[in-house]
Design a protein that fits this description.
- The complex is a heterodimer of chains A (292) and B (840).
- The longest helix of chain A is centred in the middle third of the chain and has 15 residues.
- Chain A has 2 domains: 104 residues, Sandwich (Immunoglobulin-like); 177 residues, Roll (C8orf32 fold).
- Chain A has 6 helices and 15 strands.
- In chain B, helix 5 crosses helix 14 and helix 23 packs antiparallel against helix 24.
- Helices cover 44% and strands 13% of the residues of chain B.
- The radius of gyration of chain B is 31 Å and the shape is globular.
- Classes of the chains: A alpha+beta (292), B alpha+beta (840).
- At the A-B interface, strand 2, helix 1, helix 5, strand 14 and strand 15 of A face helix 7 and strand 23 of B.
């Protein structure tokens, strides 16, 4: 499957901003079953300094400094991405979850894809005992890890309400959990907290999902959205498997990965400091268009 | 007096000795540093005990007093968290609790400690190099990756950078077990504190017992610091690098130590706000523009160093620093991410790593540690839970371990079982450690020595010649006679550590030999923040003085009731009104002048009172402590003490007059000190600019108040008093005070050092001597305004001065003040902005 992805973010400020320094993680990365043929990010106004680099986890990171006054900041990302993921294993045939945890703990790799990086609490995924207890219900002794994790994912999809108004980027996961609502970011954080609490290596993935318009209707331009889900290490044979609790989906060829990290803080598409913007209005338009 | 102490007869000495030892009984099951198991004092402590026995009770206390005064005068302090007083920003500071007994160790024993600590520093440096580089020890299976990834101080953005996690200052916390061997209790690789306190303890005890240092051949500390500095210099790209000590700021618990070390080592003390990134390099904001920083010795945690690539919530660092590090444009010590090997989980792997990485056995053993992230070790810990110390494996890991470590056997059974379940479920967050019994050393209480448990922090510095260990250290003493290491808490005393040498010790000072040093006159650059604080220190000192003069004038007239000159009541009212206008005293009906005068002296709730002003002066001074002499800092303490009223008694007018008078004398001492002893660098200029502006403004205000055309002569008399110009006036004019001559003397006479004209001339001269940024030859705003003001003043005539024209001078002075602030203090070209946040 090949996609053309376009992601335009526009910040409109109440008054001119004299200075901004930001870190952008908008360009999609390469990875298992994913090849990026073309990637491009246009920043307007043009930054005084721009550095494009690849971070420890392999994500594309752009650091930009804009030193002249501007009332609008526009980030226009385009990429052509080919997805050809290997089929996920049959859940019942994966290793027992306890074994997976033990293997991750004894891993002898510090490489970016090592499960060892994703075993511990991180900035936005603190240990929350209630979340671990919730997750544990699916993890009966010796149960195959993917089977148990898929059930947890299905329970989150069923028992939580998707509500974009309910939470913000800064809402702690414990709050989203106790209210049983949130968006993809909250669901991913909750699921990661549960899995890590049980000793399983779980990562946070940002990216896009292809949406299929209702039958007989045209796809609306810019109506797609950026997305987030979970990646679970299922043992050395199986490796990392994407699990999307928002949609109760095992990740296949409909998901496009932008960045992978321990939580949202590692992969935030845009972070930084601007001086005195007064108010700011954000506009986002995403198009994920299958080419073949 | 020392000689007198030594004339005591042998009999008296023997009696004193037995008195000191009367209650000294080593704790059962613990090693005692001072006394052997047979009850005999260990030989290397004998010279110390002999000296103490030779001193009478009074003399001994006199010696303690010398040491304590040194501690107080130098402002050796630490900050207690959560102890704040809104009126006194320094309220949380406590004097350092010094035990007057040193910990004495023989040179032979020290050899083992020093080589063990140097070896461990080398080992941890190698582990850091590996985990931020090739990761071979992990790939070979010597160390599970999860021991490193579990640490919140393993900073992935630094992976692959040579400065990432590099170690230059290391500290080991040691304890001595019952068998007499020293054990490593913990490692400090992030930003170890305590080296400065060790130095201060040494200086304090040297004051008290100078002879002992000579007779006992105690190893000196200076060469260690020399080596550390040489190591930092060598890590820079320039031959004469600019080295900054990056502090979290004055609210940090060990800020004093940081300021002290910056001054001692000649480094620039900076906060994150003083630094700025330009073109991928780090710069210090100074009054002469941006200056490059080559080396940063950080005392902030690595994670806080860069809000852009590390912890976004940090306000202590500088955005873009990690990028500069990766480019090699700045060297940080210790390298960002060095905290990763502080984790207790790592300790259990160190014996194997020492063999593999260094080909050596550990000279100093670890306290036995089992990381519960391994199945076998976890089961062992769970089996022996009751006899173990359970601790967090990583900083802040492990539920229910708020205090870091607990004795599992002392928990109530339900809590113990809950802990057991948590370890079984997520063992990787915990370690089990053998319970350590510490050794004991003497503390002096009620005329007797008593044994108390100690831990010893030993420092190692990377020098161009390899690791060098400080021959001494920072020794902490528990108040509780419980020798288990886990019971050590904060609020303990500290001791100097004496390492005895067989022969006379080498004398080293930090002063380099004369032939290697290029002659310089004004050293370094002045950071904008320091200039800002010096300026305000000057203003607050002058404000204190003006308030004190008002109070003294008011009280003097109240006491001197006999002399009821015409207009006396009017003068009293004017003086009291000024105090009210300055925010020094409460106004309104029912206020009596004497009560107002007392409030203006002592009432911290009145923001303009002398006490409030001196506190502000001291607060600004505390932020630039590294730039003040010990004497200057002591005067601040004296002033604050003089003005703090014991709430239990109200002072009489006479007493209050004395207080104001004495405080003015102390202030005069400060002025003398800054005139005679401060180098005429930019720092002194800003202090002086602050004083001149404030004095000019205060004099204008007083002049406006007391020189109305209908003012009685008593009022002009008060004006001469307040401007300290009484004697000059009388020597020039035989008649009593008349309006125009008084105004000329107080406002326009450039030869009177208290006049407004004099302040303006000085101000112009100081500003003219400051660095300029303009290259086009145009005047910068501060100088332009100062020149304009000087011209106005020189051409003014006393006969034409009135309230309005005096007010104009006052406003122009304020204009100069703002212009100086805008030009030289932290330029807000990149202030804290709001954060952009992304989209989910």
């Amino acid at each position: 499957m090949i996609y053309n992805v376009r992601h335009v973010t526009t910040y409109a400020y109440g008054r001119p901003v004299p200075f901004a320094r930001c870190i952008l993680r908008l360009l999609p990365r390469d990875g298992i079953g994913q090849i990026v043929h073309k990637r491009d990010l246009v920043i307007t106004p043009r930054p005084a300094e721009r550095i494009d680099a690849v971070c420890f986890f392999g994500n594309h990171v752009t650091t930009a400094t804009i030193a002249k006054p501007h009332k609008e900041l526009r980030l226009d990302m385009r990429a052509r991405v080919e997805i050809n993921r290997p089929a996920a294993p049959f859940p019942g045939l994966t290793r027992a979850w306890e074994e997976v945890g033990a293997l991750a703990l004894s891993s002898s790799s510090l490489a970016p894809d090592s499960p060892a990086h994703h075993l511990y609490p991180s900035r936005l995924v603190p240990p929350v005992a209630e979340v671990v207890d919730y997750a544990r219900k699916s993890f009966t002794p010796r149960r195959p890890v993917l089977e148990a994790a898929s059930e947890l994912m299905a329970r989150i999809r069923k028992e939580f309400t998707y509500d974009p108004e309910a939470t913000e980027v800064s809402t702690p996961l414990a709050e989203a959990f106790s209210e049983r609502h949130g968006v993809c970011q909250d669901f991913a954080h909750i699921m990661i907290a549960g899995l890590r609490g049980l000793g399983l290596p779980a990562a946070y993935v940002s990216g896009y999902i292809r949406t299929i318009p209702p039958p007989g209707q045209q796809r609306l331009e810019g109506s797609d959205a950026s997305h987030a889900w979970v990646s679970l290490w299922c043992g050395p044979e199986t490796g990392w498997i994407g699990l999307d609790p928002t949609n109760d989906l095992v990740v296949a060829d409909d998901h496009i990965v932008t960045a992978i990290g321990r939580d949202y803080a590692d992969v935030a598409p845009l972070d930084g400091v601007v001086i005195g913007p007064g108010s700011q209005r954000v506009g986002v338009a995403v198009d994920v268009i299958p080419v073949t | 007096m020392a000689a007198q102490g030594r004339t005591s007869s042998t009999r008296v000495k023997t009696e004193r000795r037995s008195a000191l030892l009367a209650e000294y009984r080593p704790l059962p099951g613990a090693f005692d540093e001072f006394m052997a198991a047979d009850g005999k004092v260990r030989p290397h402590w004998e010279p110390f005990l002999a000296e103490w026995s030779a001193l009478s009770h009074d003399e001994l206390h006199h010696r303690f007093g010398l040491a304590d005064r040194h501690v107080r005068d130098t402002g050796v302090s630490y900050r207690v968290h959560g102890d704040h007083d809104e009126h006194d920003p320094l309220a949380g500071e406590r004097s350092w609790p010094l035990n007057h007994v040193p910990l004495v160790l023989t040179g032979a024993e020290w050899q083992t400690i020093a080589s063990g600590v140097a070896q461990r520093a080398q080992l941890l440096a190698s582990v850091l190099d590996d985990v931020y580089g090739p990761g071979e020890s992990i790939a070979k299976g010597l160390l599970p990756a999860a021991v490193i990834t579990g640490s919140p101080d393993y900073l992935r953005p630094l992976h692959g950078s040579t400065n990432g996690g590099s170690l230059q200052l290391y500290a080991a916390d040691l304890g001595r077990g019952p068998d007499g061997r020293w054990w490593v209790l913990g490692d400090r690789t992030q930003a170890p504190s305590g080296a400065g306190y060790a130095l201060e303890n040494r200086l304090a005890l040297t004051r008290a017992f100078p002879d002992l240092f000579r007779t006992m051949n105690i190893e000196r500390l200076a060469s260690f610091f020399q080596g550390f500095r040489a190591g930092l210099v060598a890590s820079a790209r320039r031959i004469e690098p600019r080295i900054c000590l990056l502090t979290p700021g004055p609210l940090n618990e060990s800020y004093f130590e940081q300021a002290y070390l910056a001054r001692y080592l000649g480094f620039l003390l900076v906060e994150g706000g003083d630094l700025l990134m330009r073109d991928g390099r780090v710069h210090v904001r100074t009054i002469a523009g941006l200056k490059r920083a080559d080396v940063i010795w950080r005392r902030i945690d690595g994670d806080f160093a860069d809000p852009l690539e590390l912890n976004a919530a940090s306000a202590l660092g500088v955005a873009g620093l990690v990028h500069a590090v990766r480019r090699g444009n700045v060297h940080i010590a210790n390298g960002l991410g060095s905290g990763a090997v502080e984790a207790r989980a790592l300790m259990s792997f160190l014996p194997v790593l020492a063999r593999q990485l260094l080909g050596e056995e550990l000279i100093l053993p670890n306290v036995a540690t089992w990381w519960c992230g391994q199945p076998r070790e976890r089961d062992l810990v769970l089996d022996r839970l009751d006899e173990m110390t359970i601790a967090s494996a990583f900083r802040a890991s492990g539920e229910g371990l708020d205090s870091g470590s607990i004795l599992a056997g002392e928990l109530p059974s339900d809590q113990r079982e809950a802990l057991r379940a948590r370890i079984a479920a997520r063992g990787q967050d915990y370690v089990g450690q053998e319970v350590v019994r510490l050794s004991t050393m003497p503390v002096f209480q009620n005329g007797r020595l008593h044994p108390r448990p100690v831990t010893l922090r030993v420092f190692a510095a990377a020098t161009p010649e390899g690791w060098r260990v400080m021959p001494g250290g920072f020794c902490r003493i528990s108040e509780q006679p419980d020798a288990r290491a886990v019971t050590m808490r904060s609020g303990v005393r500290s001791s100097d550590v004496w390492v005895t040498s067989e022969g006379p010790v080498e004398q080293v000072t930090l002063l380099p030999s004369a032939d290697r040093v290029a002659i310089k006159r004004i050293i370094g650059v002045l950071p904008s923040r320091a200039a800002d604080n010096l300026f305000w220190m000057g203003r607050y000192l002058e404000r204190t003085e003006a308030t004190l003069r008002l109070v003294r004038a008011l009280l003097g007239r109240l006491i001197d009731a006999e002399d009821a000159s015409p207009g006396r009541a009017d003068t009293l009212r004017r003086l009291a009104n000024l105090l009210v206008a300055w925010g020094a005293a409460p106004g309104g009906k029912g206020q009596k002048p004497n009560g107002q005068a007392l409030a203006a002296l002592h009432d911290a709730n009145q923001y303009g009172s002398a006490l409030a002003s001196i506190r502000e002066a001291r607060r600004t001074a505390s932020v630039i402590r590294e730039r003040l002499s010990v004497d200057a800092w002591r005067l601040f303490g004296d002033l604050q003490r003089q003005l703090t009223l014991d709430a239990r008694h109200m002072r009489s007018e006479g007493e209050a007059f004395e207080v104001a008078d004495r405080a003015l004398k102390t202030l005069a001492a400060f002025s003398g000190l800054s005139q005679e002893n401060m180098v005429r660098g930019a720092g002194w200029r800003f202090l002086d600019i602050g004083r001149r502006i404030e004095r000019g403004i205060a004099t204008c205000r007083v002049a406006r108040h007391f020189s109305e055309t209908d003012a009685p002569s008593d009022s002009l008399d008060a004006l001469l008093d307040l401007t300290d110009s009484q004697i000059t006036y009388r020597s020039r004019y035989l008649l009593g005070p008349a309006l125009q001559p008084v105004l000329d003397l107080v406002m326009l006479d450039p030869y009177n050092p208290r006049s407004v004209a004099f302040q303006i001339e000085r101000l112009d001269a100081e500003i003219a001597a400051l660095p300029t940024l303009n290259e086009d030859g145009m005047l910068e705003a501060p100088r332009r305004l100062a020149l304009k003001l000087a011209a106005e003043c020189r051409t003014a005539e006393a006969g034409r001065l009135d309230k309005t024209s005096i007010l104009l001078f006052e406003q122009l002075l304020m204009g100069v003040s703002s212009a100086v602030a805008d030009r030289y203090f932290l330029q807000n070209d990149e202030p804290e902005g709001s954060r952009l946040t992304g989209i989910a």
